[in-house]
Protein 1
Amino acid sequence: MLSADFLNLRADVEFVNEHADLFHLDIMDGRFVPNISYGFPVVEAIAREARKPLDVHLMIEEPWKYIPRFAKAGARMISFHFEAALDRSAETLELIRSLGCKAGIAINPDCPVESIFPLLDKVDFVLIMSVFAGFGGQSFIPESLERIKAVRERLDSIGLKDVPVEVDGGVSEKNSTSLYEAGAEILVAGSAIFNSPDPAAAAQAMKA
Ligand code: ZN
């Protein structure tokens, strides 16, 4: 939704209801990332009109402070960054689950995927950033494909075949097939859809 038209949000929410499977909401605090996006009033407004689950991606410091409020605002999936939580990651995943939400761990492109392997038995999904968190409209980093494969293989090898890998950043029709083949099942696309001359066709092409 970072690429949505905030003066015409109802129309873009309706577009997602019709053409996508999730609402992906990027929350930035100006501290963990050098940008600020939007907060609770926008999330609550989207939740009122959403007929698909809200997937809240927290790019913020001290995520545990705000997770209960995002759950209350209507989030069904909540992810936070390993780099922001470090040794509090396990308890933060447990907090998300205790609120009845699906718990995800997110990692930036420069964080070794092995860092999150000890946490995989506590996650409901893994979010691999294929650009650096903080801004929409960046170019896809090709090395992300190997990182997706490594996490997918690890999940499979420890019996977690049902835990999906989500990929976020620079996702478009051009790379959706290779991302899926690498093991990503949740594709987050913003500008590739909302800035397309035919957003519905762009969304359909990626789903196909
Ligand atoms: Zn995101």
Protein 2
Amino acid sequence: MSSESRTAVVIPAAGRGVRLGPGAPKALRALNGTPMLIHAVRAMAASRAVSLVVVVAPPEGAAEVKTLLDDHALPERTDFLVVPGGESRQESVRAGLDVLPPGIDIVLVHDAARPLVPVDTVDGVIEAVRDGAPAVVPALPLADTVKQVEPAAAPGEAEAVVATPERARLRAVQTPQGFDRATLVRAHETVTDNVTDDASMVEQLGLPVVVVPGHEEAFKVTRPLDLLLAEAVLARRRANDGF
Ligand code: C5P
């Protein structure tokens, strides 16, 4: 794949984000006054390699999301499309893949819930796909030890631990995940199991998935405390920009 490859990003943003508590869909929650989705779109468009960003919106909110994108300053070199999402994250990603124009040969999939990923991480993922990897995930080592459990027999009963995977060999995987376009489309056509990320679908095809360094600022805004952390990161960036 040459350095002439064209890259698009699909941002699934159609989830309700119930773990954050009641309120607007998660992607539309404000961080320092700007919707999380706009931060995520800007984080992707910050890469000079990205020529198109496809936002997959809540089906009833597609018009609102289109207006949001129109109302916020975004780089001129990047095109934007908004499409309605589906019932699952996978369906939403597929809706985004369906509208990609010809000429795009690298596709990133990035969760709207990771609004602060630095551009170096985005570029690192694109570079690894350009270098020939069919699928690339940014990831970090884990701080916590992870236990595999048997689901509780009844609600309220204790879960039994069945295994402790070796922590040094585990990675917490982030987005954007990067793909050779044809590989990702084939994965979405072939794999029907419910999965929590796109790379695992490529794994199921038996193709290699490689890891590049993730970044602590690429964390997923999931719980209320994450909103505080995200605002603290933005405040630190603003303070650093002042110097
Ligand atoms: O629920 P979770 O945090 O894993 O969702 C990851 C991403 O997938 C979020 O950005 C969410 O908006 C998106 N999603 C979607 N369509 C759905 C469910 C989730 O686009 N039906």
